Amino acid sequence: SAASLLSATRFFVAAASATQTTETRGRLYATLGIEPAPLTVGDVMTVSAYVSNPGTANTLGITPILLVSTTTGFSSTLLADRTAPCPAAETAPPYTSTCPPFFDLIPNETRVFSWSFTLLGKGVLFFSVTVNGIDATSSMAVSALAAASATVLLPAGLAVSAYAPAAVLEAQTFTVSLTLTNTGEVGVHGVLPVIFAAPTTLLRLDSG
């Protein structure tokens, strides 16, 4: 009938209109990861920016900018040996791929930029990364921002002190006390104290 034909025509026009207004754009999303954990003075720290394109078109010319600061501003006494960023296709360390300074992402693709630092002192570090690129459909700039912080601790260390009487009688039982102190800020595992006495012909270890 004419009414049914009109209804079907309206439905077709509405569906076509909805299809034409679907937006196709390249986008950027970023997160930051820091390894190892915990961080201690002397460690080599890796800061990784995981960059993805959640859009429906390619994102072009992507490059990240990493900023590092402390509670008192950037301090060269905390960090050294900064490496240049480089995206890698691997999803786990090490990120050793060679790469150009800029790269593109197809929709739903993820790549990694990584930086390495040698930790020279304790303190709190703040990281922020800005990732810039261009939407392939509109040629408009797109960007993403991610931030993270990390606390650098003193490594574990052992300080030892011992006590024994200055003089004892023959056949007297006496005690030697050993005190171990962890001078760092992270735990120490598998500690096994061992006592050596010489000459062994003069004494016998009863317990310990």
Rg = 31 Å
Helix content: under 10%
Mean pLDDT: 77
Q: What is the general shape?
A: rod-shaped
Which class best fits the helix and strand makeup?
A: mainly beta
How many beta strands in the DSSP annotation? 12
Low-confidence parts lasting 5 or more residues at pLDDT below 50? 2-9, 11-19, 80-100
Largest sheet: 5 strands, antiparallel
Q: H/E element string?
A: HEEEEEEEEEEEE
Q: Determine the strand fraction and express it as a percent band.
A: 35-45%
Individual helix count = 1
How far apart are the first and last residues' alpha carbons, in Å?
A: 103 Å
Would you give an account of this structure?
This protein has 208 residues and is mainly β. It is built from one helix and twelve strands; from the N terminus they run αββββββββββββ. It has one helix at 2-20; strands at 29-35, 39-40, 44-52, 59-70, 79-80, 87-88, 103-105, 110-119, 123-135, 141-153, 158-163, 177-182. Strands 1, 3, 5, 6 and 8 form a five-stranded antiparallel β-sheet that branches. Strands 2-10-9-4-7 form a five-stranded mixed β-sheet, with no helix packed on it. A two-stranded antiparallel sheet has the order 11-12. The longest helix has 19 residues, at 2-20. The radius of gyration is 31 Å and the shape is rod-shaped.
